[in-house]
Amino acid sequence: MVKVKYDSSKKQWIELEKRSKDPESIYLDRKLKNKLDNIINLRKKGWDSIFIIDGDRRAGKSTVAKSCGYYLDPNISIKNFVSGMGDALDKIESLPDESVVIFDEASLTFSSKDHANKGQKQLLKVIDVIGVKKMTMILVLPTFFELTKPLAIFHSRFLLHVYTDKNLIRGRIAYFGTKNKKLLYEMGKKNYNSYGRPSADFVGKFVNYIPYYENEYLALKKKSRDESFNKRSVDSIDKKDYTTIIKKMVENNMGSTKPLPFTTLSTLTNVARSTLSDYKQEILQKHPNSTSEI
User: Fold this and answer.
1) What's the half-sphere exposure (Cβ side, CA atoms, 13 Å) at 39?
2) Does domain 2-230 match CATH 3.40.50.300?
3) Which segments of 126-285 are extended strands (E)?
4) Predicted TM-score (pTM) of this structure
5) Pick from 9, 14, 86, 176: CA 20 to 30 A from residue 242's CA?
6) Closest Cα partner for 102 from 56, 66, 133, 151?
């Protein structure tokens, strides 16, 4: 571990003695610091960067993200955190070029596979803006196996997998670079999302870090989670409306010269045959002259 402090007059980080009690200093794993320095050097050459932080709940993902974010952008504040995909582009547009933007896990929680695909398509649009503004994007989520292949493999530079030791003590990270991250995605997907193979490029440690905006961050995280939990997809159909649509399909099918069997209808609509049969009886009661040979 190395202890560092940002010198605003020189606009650079300086290394301190570990005994230093400077309140503005932070600890970073030395190997991780070197990787973050690479991102800073790439940014100076006009490149954007994306990396992923994943791990179990309460393992310390957000702590690692805030530490990395501060090192990459000493001016970081609550404005650098995205609370939901809806405000992502506006927030990124409002930030200065070369800033850090952190997508915390609640903003990357997708309620279904379809929603996930749409959400990640939105992320790909965000990536275009990130590139133009030479920004660094940090994606924080439970597991990077949830990401689509382009996001997991091609757009991100590395993965930091956060985990605990056998006694559930926080403070461990495993770094997977470009090559091993690709292998991990391909091998892990086939092995129940396992992080066992290949081995990480290196493993390191992290310590707790509480920034000055911590209370604002906790409030934003709660707001984001509440919205994620209560949010209904814009493209979703109300259950009552869906039932009406299915009943209309059954009625139209009953009047068809070549009606589909219930087995086929059930497969197409993902509605149980018994439910379709109930709808049929309901329609016959309302319209006794309807064709019933389905």
Assistant:
1) 26
2) yes
3) 136-141, 158-163, 172-176, 202-205
4) 0.74
5) 86
6) 66
